[in-house]
Amino acid sequence: MKIAIIGAGNLGLSIAKGLIVNNAFTTLYLTKRKIEELQNYEEYSNVTVTKDNREAVQNSDILVFAVQPTQMERILEEIKDQLTEKHVLISTVTGFKIAAMEAIVGQDQFIVRSMPNTAIAVGKSMTCLCSNEKGEKRIAIAEAIFNRLGTSIIIPENKMQAATVICASGVAFWMRLIRATTQGAVQLGFDAKDAQQLAMQTCLGASSLLIESGKHPEEEIDKVTTPRGCTIEGLNEMEHNGLSSSLIKGIQASFKKINTITID
Ligand SMILES: NC(=O)C1=CN([C@@H]2O[C@H](COP(=O)(O)OP(=O)(O)OC[C@H]3O[C@@H](n4cnc5c(N)ncnc54)[C@H](O)[C@@H]3O)[C@@H](O)[C@H]2O)C=CC1
Ligand SMILES: O=C(O)[C@@H]1CCC=N1
After folding, report:
1. Which of these, 16, 110, 133, 184, has the minimum number of CB atoms within 10 Å of its CB?
2. This prediction's pTM
3. 66 labeled binding residue
4. 262 in helix, strand or coil?
């Protein structure tokens, strides 16, 4: 596959790392305004680093757009006359709807909207996908890419905003929970390194239990909470202080914010 990542910033480079580690491309173009920051990638013989989006589009089939929402319109305008039947456009751009892309490049393009997360760098992204009508014929290509770099599901476009919060912002939410657990472990006497390892691996174990068993979290919680034991004591104290409520309110705030970020 000849892939171009238009906008090799935080997410674009995470995708590039995942593609490189998994050897999942024939050629890879990385574009960015300040390409000096991408020097490390020039050592790969099949990776090209350039400021020239048009060169990247001309020499690639799969175009992954990973620019800020306010940059997307200009970039689509810049490359639209180069699009041919070989191209599949995969946008990761938050809040930028398929109709807005079609308004610029036309409906007769294979358009996929995706919402991956930065765990794509280590092949563990939860990615949500949807497409325009024409894109339905090639969404399988996007699925193949994202399944190689994690797990993907196809959802209706009207759920992409929610998917952004849960999957993309979600990485930051879980990181903060791991960080807070680490701080607690340090207070209980572990050094910082051990504390983080305990927090990370316990998080991975909890998640793996659910993924492999298909069970509800409360069923697993019941197995841990000894009556009158320390776990229920801690859990109830957390809930009295608003743990679940705080998370849910944060998710709502994040969701509402997306309505404004293409306008700022
Ligand atoms: N960071 C994340 O975890 C996620 C981000 N997203 C979305 O992906 C998009 C990118 O996000 P980030 O990587 O965080 O942003 P970023 O700001 O780190 O990356 C954007 C990149 O685009 C480059 N760029 C700007 N104008 C350009 C142009 N004309 N041609 C080529 N490159 C250009 C910038 O130099 C920058 O490196 C955003 O729309 C964001 O909402 C979606 C899911 C997760
Ligand atoms: O924070 C943001 O706006 C972007 C979208 C999801 C992750 N990062």
Report:
1. 133
2. 0.96
3. yes
4. coil
